């Protein structure tokens, strides 16, 4: 079996390798003592690092530093937006997109009977006809900016207009957009936005909810209220430093890197559709340059994953597992695909380590892997 | 890799022998329990976790394959249908026949693997281009009976690294020495899809209950029960007949007639069987037709009984040298030549 260093990694959307600038920035601060809530010199030093990171991150996102609420990651930030809005007086309902991440769709079970789901079309884009469920009883509308499984980018103008007309708050999960597409909180016009570090080369364990200062979110948890009184727990200073460094690097390189990845994505998409029959790329432009989702008709996705894994290629279905067993993709089902199609799709996602040679190796391995996976599914 | 010690050590030995090994855990339950409870069940999330951790230690890839639909159709539904028909199935054997050494093996072969290795206690020998299946050296753990349904195409793709020389205690010691922390994990028993161990309750849930009669050999009603599917030929406990037999001796289930929901009971000697008719024969190496001397086993961990065996293409007949007791239709009869498996059949009928 190939060792990790000899392998090609096509799962950046699940977790990107830590970039060197983030590692170096964290190395410099891990050993420092001091809780940023403490009043002494060590505490103030830690607090300074935290606030500088907040300012850097805000600068990368077109936000004011006071709008950054650090969380443990995207899931907690999404939970905070939804649960934080769920007690708005006179507004018992929430509206979410049909292809949201489980950290958003899970609110359907948490708040039974209170969630409206906005349907999407075959390309994964919100159907404008369904937006009339947003009313003056809607507390918050949450629709993701870039889908984590398909890379489909969601134009938000119409849903935001519908939300504003009803005076509902708006939230977008921008986890997969940050670092790949232009992202400016003020320009976007949403009330709250989720980002996370480890999808763009930062450390796992930190994310943020970017949230307008006048938005009175309720705190889902309790404790010291360290982050704007809505998120409790000792602030993660070193992780914030790493997040800020990675974000600055990703945003600085974004245009060139997005263009580079976009070319690789098109090469892979064309290579797959040219060399393998009965395949379908899921999602049309605009899409993230970093994600390609393909249905390989007649395969079990996990067999294909196993074959590529054995060939030294790390890929993903992009969707949830239950006890290690791949389930049909809820995202693709919501996009009108059949159970079979939703069970036979793989996600390839790209980052700084992806180059032409890696794409070549993937394209070389795919035809036989697909042929065998198809034979195994008979 | 069930998450148990046997398959983990089997995998370790395969790795050590230089094979390119991939670990596979089978998800057989639609709604697996989070934790294993007692010695029952074998596909809780904890078992899957244990298998994964063993694969980590061995440095091999690990996957969970979902065969829950196939398992439900081929093993669980079959189990219920067999009881409903008045027979007593062996689901482990059915799982080996239909899932582990069929659906799983086929999937692996299609993906480019050469063989399936498991932690079963049985011995394979290559002789003249054929794969022979023999009893394990460890008689107490021998699992050739539940593997007896495998044919040559299946056996030629099997590897049982624990078979030749291993005692259970040694396997535990070996697991411990190899750093596999599941070394002390208890063996699993009973039926994996009935983790409560309450087979009667499971069957009642699936088949409902309806009042029926116990009758004696003369057809006289001697009691009532809540459904014939709750009984197995040879069963003594749990009959709750109320009225004792005239001679005061214990009574046993002699026969089950599901169409009339009648269970016949009688004395132990009425369970005596010398002739066994088997259907759907399978052959480990090749058909052995005609009449031949051999040994037969009619239940897991049962004794090997000397017999004349008459092999035919569609059925077999076994004439035991000495009568045995309580053979339930639906169970497998596995035929041996000494310690070598020749074939098997499903018991359809018995006679004195």
From TrEMBL, chain A:
EC number: 2.8.1.7
A Pfam family the protein falls into: Aminotran_5
Domain of life: Bacteria
CC cofactor: pyridoxal 5'-phosphate
Enzyme class: transferase
Domain Aminotransferase class V as annotated: residue spans: 9-362
KW Metal-binding (keyword) present: yes
GO molecular function, one term: iron-sulfur cluster binding
Entries under Gene3D superfamilies matching the protein: 1.10.260.50, Aspartate Aminotransferase, domain 1 (3.90.1150.10), Type I PLP-dependent aspartate aminotransferase-like (Major domain) (3.40.640.10)
Protein keywords: Iron, Iron-sulfur, Metal-binding, Pyridoxal phosphate, Transferase
Reactions this protein catalyses: (sulfur carrier)-H + L-cysteine = (sulfur carrier)-SH + L-alanine
Family of this protein: Belongs to the class-V pyridoxal-phosphate-dependent aminotransferase family. NifS/IscS subfamily.
Protein name (record): cysteine desulfurase
């Amino acid at each position: 079996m190939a060792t990790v260093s000899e392998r090609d990694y096509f799962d950046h959307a699940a977790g990107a390798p830590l970039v060197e600038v983030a590692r170096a920035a964290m190395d410099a601060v891990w050993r420092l003592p001091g809780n940023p809530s403490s009043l002494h010199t060590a505490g103030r030093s830690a607090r300074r690092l935290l606030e500088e990171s907040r300012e850097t991150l805000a600068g990368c996102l077109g936000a004011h530093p006071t709008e950054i609420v650090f969380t443990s990651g995207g899931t907690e930030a999404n939970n905070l937006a939804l649960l934080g809005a769920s007690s708005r007086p006179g507004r018992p309902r929430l509206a979410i997109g049909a292809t949201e991440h489980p950290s958003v769709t899970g609110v359907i079970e948490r708040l039974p009977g209170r969630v409206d789901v906005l349907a999407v079309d075959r390309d994964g884009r919100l159907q404008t006809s369904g937006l009339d469920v947003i009313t003056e009883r809607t507390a918050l509308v949450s629709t993701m900016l870039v889908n984590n499984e398909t890379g489909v980018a969601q134009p938000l103008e119409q849903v935001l207009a519908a939300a504003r007309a009803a005076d509902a708050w708006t939230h977008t999960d921008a986890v997969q957009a940050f670092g790949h597409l232009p992202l400016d909180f003020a320009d976007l016009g949403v009330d709250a936005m989720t980002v996370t570090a480890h999808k763009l080369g930062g450390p796992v364990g930190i994310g943020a909810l970017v949230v307008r200062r006048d938005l009175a979110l309720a705190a889902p948890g309790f404790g010291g209220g360290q982050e704007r009184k809505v998120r409790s727990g000792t602030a993660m200073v070193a992780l914030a430093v790493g997040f800020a460094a990675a974000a600055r690097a990703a945003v600085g390189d974004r245009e060139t890197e997005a263009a580079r990845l976009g070319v690789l994505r098109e090469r892979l998409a064309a290579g797959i559709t040219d060399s393998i029959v009965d395949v379908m790329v899921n999602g049309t432009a605009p899409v993230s340059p970093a994600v390609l989702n393909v249905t390989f008709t007649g395969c079990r996705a996990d067999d294909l994953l196993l074959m590529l894994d054995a060939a030294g290629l790390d890929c993903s279905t992009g969707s949830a597992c239950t006890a290690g067993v791949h389930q049909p993709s809820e995202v693709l089902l919501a996009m009108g695909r059949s159970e079979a199609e939703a069970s036979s799709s793989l996600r390839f996602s790209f980052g700084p380590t992806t180059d032409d040679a890696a794409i070549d190796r993937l394209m070389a391995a795919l035809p036989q892997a697909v042929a065998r996976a198809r034979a195994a599914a008979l | 890799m069930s998450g148990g010690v046997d398959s983990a050590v089997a995998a370790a030995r395969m790795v050590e022998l230089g094979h390119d090994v991939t670990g596979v855990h089978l998800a057989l339950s639609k709604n697996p329990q989070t934790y294993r409870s007692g010695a029952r069940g074998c596909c809780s999330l904890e078992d899957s976790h244990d298998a994964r951790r063993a694969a980590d230690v061995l440095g091999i890839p690990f996957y969970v394959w979902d065969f829950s639909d196939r398992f439900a159709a081929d093993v669980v539904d079959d189990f219920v249908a067999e009881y409903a028909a008045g027979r007593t199935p062996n689901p482990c054997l059915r799982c080996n026949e239909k899932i582990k050494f069929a659906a799983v093996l086929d999937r692996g072969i299609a993906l480019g693997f050469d063989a399936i290795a498991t932690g079963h206690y049985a011995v394979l020998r290559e002789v003249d281009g054929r794969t022979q299946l023999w009893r394990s050296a460890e008689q107490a753990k021998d699992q050739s009976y539940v593997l007896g349904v495998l044919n040559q195409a299946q056996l030629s793709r099997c590897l049982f690294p624990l078979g030749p020389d291993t005692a259970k205690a040694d396997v535990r010691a070996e697991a411990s020495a190899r750093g596999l922390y599941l070394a002390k994990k208890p063996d699993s028993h009973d039926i994996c899809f009935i983790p409560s161990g309450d087979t009667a309750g499971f069957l009642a849930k699936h088949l409902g209950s309806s009042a029926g009669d116990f009758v004696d050999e003369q057809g006289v009603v001697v009691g009532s029960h809540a459904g014939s599917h709750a009984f197995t030929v040879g069963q003594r406990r749990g009959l709750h007949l109320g009225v004792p037999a005239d001679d005061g001796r214990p009574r046993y289930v002699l026969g089950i007639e599901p169409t009339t929901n009648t269970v016949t009971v009688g004395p132990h000697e009425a369970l005596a069987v010398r002739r066994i008719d088997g259907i759907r024969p399978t052959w480990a190496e090749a058909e052995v037709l005609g009449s031949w001397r051999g040994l037969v086993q009619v239940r897991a961990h049962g004794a090997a009984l000397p017999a004349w065996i008459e092999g035919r293409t569609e059925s077999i007949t076994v004439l035991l040298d000495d009568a045995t007791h309580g053979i339930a239709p639906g169970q497998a009869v596995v035929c041996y030549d000494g310690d070598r498996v020749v074939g098997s059949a499903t018991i359809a009928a018995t006679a004195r």
